[in-house]
Amino acid sequence: MTKLSVNINKIATLRNSRGGNVPNLLKVAQDIERFGAQGITIHPRPDERHIRYQDARDLKNIVKTEYNIEGNPVKSFMDLVLQVKPTQVTLVPDADDAITSNAGWDTITHHSFLKEVIQEFQQNGIRTSIFIDTDLRLMEAAAKTGTDRIELYTEHFASEFEKGNKNAVKPYTEAAILAHKLGLGINAGHDLSLQNIQFFKENIPNLAEVSIGHALISESLYLGLENVVNMYLNKLQ
Ligand SMILES: CC(=O)[C@@H](O)[C@H](O)COP(=O)(O)O
Ligand SMILES: NCC(=O)COP(=O)(O)O
């Protein structure tokens, strides 16, 4: 079975756009768990444009399933994660000004840095995962960092799948086979959606977990729209 961890960044984006507490991020996390999701993911960015560092602390007492915090392990992020102690930390090499995550780690160039931070998280009882592309040399280097898992960066697969190119899943399949042989757990995420998730799952052996946010929240809005418009119409009769 592959676990679904719902990324709630976009709920925080909506909340922050009005300055109040609607929608209530903590309640949304609780409800997502009640609906059956097996994890909650957040990706606090240094500018706190969606998830705030305080949200990460508040969610610690709320999330009863698997709590996954993603981000670039700069000092403020490391301090936050070591304080909150989530189930899992996913290391992502984000530039401060990136609109969204747009690359995996070069695990060869950054090998000693990754090894050091991974050790620190693991010594504090936090499972680690490295956001990574499908290059097999990078996968081998990832294993040497001592990380528990990798997260396959699926943006390329998702965009190619949308164009009808199903072969785009092949490098992900090969990367997953190697990762499993190397003893790594396999996560995946970025632009996974209702359109592509089943095909992806069917082609990735030993897929432990997917984290999905942007599409899942957009789909939820769209699939809920008719219901809510009708609820308003009923009240206006
Ligand atoms: C690590 C990753 O794949 C990203 O998708 C990220 O978690 C989403 O971040 P934003 O919501 O800021 O785009
Ligand atoms: N790790 C990926 C994630 O949490 C969500 O990515 P996306 O679905 O918002 O692209």
TrEMBL record:
What is catalyzed by this enzyme? Answer: 3-amino-2-oxopropyl phosphate + 1-deoxy-D-xylulose 5-phosphate = pyridoxine 5'-phosphate + phosphate + 2 H2O + H(+)
Give GO cellular component annotations, separated by semicolons: cytosol
- EC assignment: the record states 2.6.99.2
Q: Which GO terms describe its molecular function?
A: pyridoxine 5'-phosphate synthase activity
Binding locations of 1-deoxy-D-xylulose 5-phosphate: 45, 50, 100
Predominant cellular place of this UniProt entry's protein: cytoplasm
GO biological process, any: pyridoxine biosynthetic process
Question: What assembly does the database describe for this protein?
Answer: Homooctamer; tetramer of dimers.
Q: What does this protein do?
A: Catalyzes the complicated ring closure reaction between the two acyclic compounds 1-deoxy-D-xylulose-5-phosphate (DXP) and 3-amino-2-oxopropyl phosphate (1-amino-acetone-3-phosphate or AAP) to form pyridoxine 5'-phosphate (PNP) and inorganic phosphate.
Q: What is this protein called?
A: Pyridoxine 5'-phosphate synthase
